[in-house]
């Protein structure tokens, strides 16, 4: 039988990766994961080992992130001086620009679409597992995922490039 803390520890890399993608800030992500682990340990009696621990932990992390965003919205936007671009820096290469453009487009997605997209694409979760974590029906998850992908295509200009049609 796998020990609770061992299983918890095995989930930490995935939690950190998802938290970093959600927050786009390493320090905030680490704080979010720490809060998630603290909450999981303090409420370990609520965990029912009828299934894997991973979805339970991701649910805790998502809820903590949503609560933090609501609190931050009430306080107003925080401007981090370290995140401001250095105007004297030469432009990065094209692939870096494309990656930065995609990153900004993901950041601009509504939270529900961003959570869905990251769980499915970054974490590679099955639709049913991601829907369970977000506590939404499977159809809603698929709809959010479709809207997120369409929004990304539009934001990055992918939907405006000519597509090759196959000739029969």
Defining key terms:
7 helices; 168 residues; 2 domains; 0% strand; globular; Arc Repressor Mutant, subunit A; Rna Polymerase Sigma Factor, Chain: A; disordered C terminus; mainly alpha
Short description:
It contains seven helices and no strands.
What does this molecule look like?
This is Sigma-70 family RNA polymerase sigma factor. With 168 residues, this protein is mainly α. It folds into 2 domains: 1-76, Rna Polymerase Sigma Factor, Chain: A (Orthogonal Bundle); 99-159, Winged helix-like DNA-binding domain superfamily/Winged helix DNA-binding domain (Arc Repressor Mutant, subunit A, Orthogonal Bundle). Helices cover 67% and strands 0% of the residues. The protein has 7 helices and no strands. The protein is globular. The model is unreliable at 162-168 (pLDDT under 50).
| CATH class category label of the largest domain | Mainly Alpha
Question: What is the N-to-C succession of helices and strands?
Answer: HHHHHHH
Oligomer: single chain
Count of runs of 4 or more consecutive helical residues: 7
- Give the terminus-to-terminus CA distance: 57 Å
**E-strand count:** 0
- Structural class assignment: mainly alpha
CATH architecture of the largest domain: Orthogonal Bundle
Largest sheet report: none
Q: How many domains is the backbone divided into?
A: 2
Please estimate the helix content. Answer: 55-70%
Low-confidence stretches: 162-168
Percent range for β-strand residues: under 5%
Large-scale geometry = globular
Q: Mean pLDDT, rounded to whole units?
A: 84
CATH topology of the largest domain: Rna Polymerase Sigma Factor, Chain: A
Q: What is the CA-atom radius of gyration, in angstroms?
A: 19 Å
